[in-house]
Amino acid sequence: MNAASSVGRSRSEITLIAVTKFFPASDVQTLYNLGLRDFGENRDNEGADKSALLPSDAHWHFQGQVQSRKIKSIATWAKTIHSLDSLDHAAKFNEILESPERATEVERDFFIQVNLEPERNDRGGVAPSDLENFLGSVRKFSAVKVSGLMAVLPIDLEIEKGFEIVAGLQQKYDLAKLSIGMSNDFEAAILAGATHIRVGSSILGSRPTLT
């Protein structure tokens, strides 16, 4: 990627997640055949269905809002969860992942979602001012391995400024990974230090219209 090389970063430092929400499993299979291995879904039912059709070396990322009743299913197919923002959810993930029947599975990777609009109650994520306490509490759950932060920028926030805020929090709390950047801003995200970018329309085109 040109953006990576322009700041002295290696392509291997950046995980490209193909966001396949609303696209058929056949499109995911095509991407897999072309060499992609990281796929992202916002809905549990789509992720569960599509992941069952691909080989086991496909790495599935859940990046939608977590619902308590869906956690058991999400923990079955998603290897990385990008949107942890509730201690209750963390406790439930931990309980499921520590159960004896799951003991031989690979560890799950978690990102904490940061809310850059904490004044809005309809936004998921942890406010930056609450992040330190939230991290300290989550780290008590042995099966919930937090490796980074994720954020979706508000539409009225300057892209570079938003990424700077989240990258600063990542560095402040010494986290290894940063999940920022989508189709319209992934180059700026890479320049800001993103380790994971979530790209949909730039790979697969406009999403199909649901009927």
Fold and architecture overview:
Helix 3 (44-51) packs parallel to helix 4. This protein has helices at 2-6, 25-33, 44-51, 71-77, 87-97, 131-138, 159-172, 186-192, 201-204; strands at 15-19, 38-41, 59-62, 80-84, 109-114, 145-151, 177-179, 196-199. It contains 9 helices and 8 strands. The chain has one domain (2-204): Alanine racemase (TIM Barrel, Alpha-Beta Barrel), CATH 3.20.20. Strands 7-6-5-4-3-2-1-8 form an 8-stranded parallel beta sheet. The model has no long low-confidence stretch (mean pLDDT 92). By secondary structure, it is an alpha/beta fold.
Overall CATH class? Alpha Beta
Question: Helix content range of the residues, please?
Answer: 25-40%
- Derived structural class: alpha/beta
- The count of helical stretches stands at 9
Topology:
Elements: H1 2-6, E1 15-19, H2 25-33, E2 38-41, H3 44-51, E3 59-62, H4 71-77, E4 80-84, H5 87-97, E5 109-114, H6 131-138, E6 145-151, H7 159-172, E7 177-179, H8 186-192, E8 196-199, H9 201-204
Parallel strand pairs: 1-2, 1-8, 2-3, 3-4, 4-5, 5-6, 6-7
